[in-house]
């Protein structure tokens, strides 16, 4: 297999647009659940937290322009974005690390409904290997390379402790996988051409904190924050 | 307490900027971990997946302009963003639903390091109540209102099954909490003035799938996707 990671993308969708497509998809799925058939660019933009001009520009990259006075067809736009993101394919995913987070991810309904099929669960702990979770038996990490090859795993989810993550990532990459989703609280180094994304479960909590702070400011009559730069900030 | 949820914000930071601040913070924390002292707007923008003009505009809302030829001081920018997001305060968080996901969240180091202190774990299952997790005893959901009041809980994380989430959300709101982070796979309705954010753990996986699809296209010589709109899309 010849990899040409530096080759420009065939279709020029900006990276920032790619990052927003899942947000539109999440908003659209919520609308579909509530039975909405069409949505205006203003309403969809508001639900996704962007301005409507940007939304229209993003969707124009998909060849989706909506209908004047009607807006976008919710189901069709879900299909277009899903296709663009590759979610109409079936992606075999392996989850490495079957602690609480790995188990939660294995049982997470939102993966299957987006085209992600959990094809393997792997762990190094003999106490955990053999456990039956979400229809799968947990396999030993020694089987990693075999499992990746035989089941066509194209994305690996790392839910190991921080100390084990880099070693597993190295093996995953050596086995030919070029997409890693990292839940372990550590920055991993991978060769060029490997896409790695780090999940920070506190991101949404941070946005809530911003609004909560503003609500408290309003109740107390103004910000109660120090303006000085403290000697040490523990982050 | 008088709540004025419709009052305009004292400082006019656009909502879209607020949503990007945690992304900058995540990128900056990664840089700080790697020992970087300063960062250019171009590098920070690339790490956060936005364009650098937007980054500079976002940061200008915080009064942060960097230094020509040097860039931004990483630690100071972490402090400024953290302060703006309210992360230099201590937020008491209650996690409702102590299954695998609730346990994983209770043990998640990324909360504490961002100013979120898990002050309570609650569950309805008598088998789970009394379990000792991350330094806390799981309490019965009947204690929800008491716990919120006595421990000053300002943000509730819902990690219950979908069927229980709305009922818990109603009680949380009645107890005066106006910030809810929802991991349950269901759309909740809450009164105006309550901020609710839904976490979709598959968002980052979707971005990976997009790139994986592109890599496969390059190897096979072009997109293998159907252009037709199929009869049924199961999302």
UniProtKB/TrEMBL annotation, chains A, B:
It holds the Pfam family Put_DNA-bind_N. One of its GO terms (molecular function) is DNA binding. Residues 23-62 bind DNA. It comes from the Bacteria. GO terms for cellular component: cytoplasm. Residues 86-187 form the CoA-binding domain. GO terms for biological process: negative regulation of DNA-templated transcription; response to redox state. InterPro entries: CoA-bd, NAD(P)-bd_dom_sf, Rex_actinobacterial-type, Rex_DNA-bd_C_dom, Tscrpt_rep_Rex, WH-like_DNA-bd_sf, WH_DNA-bd_sf. SMART domains: CoA_binding (SM00881). It is found in: Cytoplasm. NAD(+) binds at residues 97-102. Keywords: Cytoplasm, DNA-binding, NAD, Repressor, Transcription, Transcription regulation. Its main location: cytoplasm. Coiled coil: none annotated. The keyword Plastid does not apply. Homodimer. PANTHER family: REDOX-SENSING TRANSCRIPTIONAL REPRESSOR REX, REDOX-SENSING TRANSCRIPTIONAL REPRESSOR REX 1. Belongs to the transcriptional regulatory Rex family. Modulates transcription in response to changes in cellular NADH/NAD(+) redox state. This is Redox-sensing transcriptional repressor Rex. The lineage of its organism: Bacteria, Bacillati, Actinomycetota, Actinomycetes, Streptosporangiales. The gene is rex.
